[in-house]
Specification:
The protein is α+β, with helices and mostly antiparallel strands and 390 residues long. The chain contains 1 helix and 26 strands. Helices cover 22% and strands 34% of the residues. InterPro entries: Gal_Oxase/kelch_b-propeller (IPR011043), Kelch-typ_b-propeller (IPR015915).
Length: 390
């Protein structure tokens, strides 16, 4: 009996202990389950927050993408319009007199052509319209009033530069807005007068040649916008012989003091002889045409006592031919080619004459569109806009 009771008590005790242990295990499982549930909820919240943040960023990126797409479409439309209307141009300028080649498609009409004229006294500068309808004073600033006296000029990287002249024979200055700013770089030679300048290598550089005495009358140098380097000297002297482009190569004709007829062209290996000009010519203007021929306008004929000339000559296919005449004989003027017109600014006659050419560059007519305000020797010419520096 006692054994049975003991057994029952033992069984009850074991059951109670087992139950406590089981309850403890269950409580532990419930605690772990609760912890896992909390972690799951935290992960869920984190996921939702992350998704919302990224979704917002994605939405913002998509919005930016759409805006960029619209901008690209606008730019493409503008580019297409520009390609329909934009023309290409190339400029080349020389002095004794000054020559500018401007190629446009369609060509600039006289109504749209405006030329800044800077004489030896810069305070007498003016803006001339190509159709002759207006001539307005322009304000150009310079270190001194006679700063452009007998200077040669050319474009370098689209900027007008002047070289040498009086009083500083080695100066190089650039026109910035309405001011001639002298550069620190200098010419290698003293070029007081009789020299010329020409834009070369697609307007990236300028060739400056010749002068008034000694071997300088043959020498040349190249300016690239920051430095000057000597290059081939001509075989003949070319004081007042000018520089122009013939077959896209720098060319000079005649000489003021040696009074010869020699023409030369600068190649990659040196100067090459061209056919002599029919006259002992100098103080003319050289102008390149698009067809690779070159015009020689006005000048003095030292085979005829230095008589002033009105002839318009053309060097084409290695031959010189007179193709027309100015309305008034002249010398030491300057010329510039804009569109299908050559504008000649006379020194002695004061006349401003326009030579009009057809699309095939045949001379059609010559007309006087005005007069210079004074007798300006080798004025600096620069193609610009209608209200430049006025």
């Amino acid at each position: 009996m006692n054994f049975v009771i003991f057994g029952i008590i033992l069984i009850e005790f074991c059951s109670a202990w087992k139950c406590v242990r089981e309850k403890t295990r269950i409580k532990k499982l419930l605690w772990e389950n609760g912890k896992l549930r909390i972690e799951r909820n935290q992960l869920k919240d984190e996921k939702e927050r992350f998704s919302n943040e990224n979704f917002g960023e994605i939405e913002e990126l998509n919005a930016q993408k759409n805006e960029l797409k619209k901008e690209i479409e606008k730019l493409n439309a503008k580019l297409e319009d520009a390609l329909k209307t934009t023309s290409t141009s190339a400029s080349s300028i020389s002095t004794t007199g000054s020559t500018s080649l401007t190629t446009t498609s369609p060509p600039i009409t006289p109504n749209d052509a405006f030329i800044l004229v800077i004489p030896y006294y810069v305070d007498e500068s003016y803006l001339q319209s190509g159709d002759g309808s207006s001539q307005i004073s322009a304000k150009i600033n310079a270190p001194r009033n006679d700063y452009a006296s007998e200077a040669a000029h050319a474009l370098v990287n689209g900027k007008l530069h002047i070289f040498g002249g009086y009083p500083d024979r080695t100066k190089i200055a650039r026109l910035d807005d309405c001011t001639l700013n002298e550069l620190t770089v200098r010419l290698n030679e003293e070029r007081r007068n009789g020299h010329a300048a020409l834009s070369i290598e697609n307007g990236e550089k300028a060739l400056i040649c010749f002068g008034d005495s000694g071997n300088i009358r043959k020498t040349c140098e190249i300016f690239d916008g920051s430095t000057t380097v000597s290059t081939f000297a001509a075989d003949w002297t070319h004081r007042d012989g000018g520089l122009g482009l013939y077959k896209n190569q720098p060319t000079s004709v005649g000489c003021g003091d040696y009074e010869h007829q020699k023409a030369e062209m600068l190649s990659a290996s040196g100067w090459i002889a061209l056919p002599d000009h029919p006259k002992r010519i100098s103080e003319h203007s050289l102008v390149a045409l698009e067809n690779q021929s070159m015009l020689l306008i006005a000048g003095r004929d030292y085979g005829n006592g230095g008589a002033y000339q009105s002839g318009i000559w053309q060097l084409k296919d290695e031959n010189w031919n007179q193709i027309g005449e100015l309305l008034q004989a002249d010398f030491a003027g300057s010329a510039i080619y804009i569109g299908r017109s050559v504008y000649y600014f006379g020194y002695d006659s004061l006349a401003i004459e326009r030579l009009y050419f057809t699309e095939t560059e045949e001379l059609q007519n010559v007309a006087q569109i005005g007069n210079q305000p004074g007798d300006y020797y080798l004025p600096v010419l620069f193609q610009t806009i209608s209200d430049y520096c006025i």
